[in-house]
Known about the structure:
Radius of gyration: 19 Å
Shape: globular
Strand content: 5-15%
Order of helices and strands: EEEHEHEHEHEHEHEHHHEHH
Helix content: 25-40%
Distance between the termini: 33 Å
CATH topology: TIM Barrel
Number of strands: 10
Largest sheet: 8 strands, parallel
CATH architecture: Alpha-Beta Barrel
Amino acid sequence: MKYRKIGKSGVKISEISLGSWQTYGSAIDIKKTENCVKRAFELGINSFDTADVYGYGQTHAGAAEELLGKALSEIPRHMYVLATKAFWPVGQGVNEQGLSRKHLFEACNASLKRLNTDYVDIFYCHRFDTETPLEETLMALDDLVKQGKVLYIGVSEWTPEQIMQAEKITSEMHLNPVIINQPCYNMLNRSIEKKVLPVCETEGIGLAVWSPVAQGVLTGKYVKGYEFPEGSRAKDPLAMNPLMNEYITDENLDKVAELKKIAEGLGIPLVDMALSWILSKKAVTSVIIGASRPEQIEQNVKAVEIELSEVTLKEISHVLDA
C-alpha cells in the first residue's frame, strides 16, 4: 500500500480507502463487514469512510456506523483514520438534518456513540446547507475540533465557490480549515476537473473521491447489447440508484468497451486501470472503494502498484474525450 498526505495537513491515508455506502448497514451483515475491514487493514488500508445516513431507509440511521464500529473494535484506534458525515435527514424531526450548530453537535455525538470511539479523524459536511449561515457551520465544526471530538474537517460535493467561501471565513476568523473534499470522480464523470480539482489543489485541500468505478460500470461487466449480469446493481431494482441511469448509456458502454481493450493490452483488469487513472492525478489523496467480499479489496489494492505511462494516459484521454 502507498500513502499520501491529505492536502496541506500532516496526516497520511492509504491511496485506497474502504467506504460503506450501499454496503455496510444495508446490504451485508456484521460478519461480512468484519471480514472486509480486517482484510483491508491487513492489506495496508488505514482509511475507513462512513456516514450517519448510510443504511437509513433500508434499516435505520447510523446502521453502517454501528457495523463499522464493531468491525474496527479489534484494531488499535491510533492505527486507522476514521471518517463520518452529517447533513442528510436521519429522522423526522425538523432539526435532524442540515449543518446547524444544533444538528452538527447532536449528529457528531450520535456518530461517536455508534462508532464506539471518542473521536473521528474526519468529520464531513455531507452537502452544503443553503439554510444555515456558513459562519455558524464552520464555528460549530471548529468547536468540535477544540473539544477533541473531531480532528479534521471535510466537505463533500461542495461547489468551488462554496469551498473558497469557507476558506475565506476560516482564514479571517482563525478557525480550523477544511482539509479534505469528497466529490464523485471517475472516468465517466469528470465534472470536477474544470474547477473543483484546481481549487482544491491551489488551496491545499485533499481529495478522497467516491464512486471511482462508476457504480460498477467501469468493471466492464455491463456490455451493450447483452443482458445485465444476475445479481448486479443494474439487474436488481432494489439496488438501483439514479447514478446507475446516468452511467449505463450506449455512449458510456462504448467507451468502456474501448477502455477494456486498453486494459487488456496492458495485461490488467479494467477496474485496476480505472483506479490507477484516478491516482495519476496529483491532487487526489485517496479513492474510496466499496466491497462486500474481501476478494474485491484484494483486487482493488493492486491498482496502487500500477503506473500508467504517458502513452497510455493519452490513449485513455482519446477514448474519454471522443
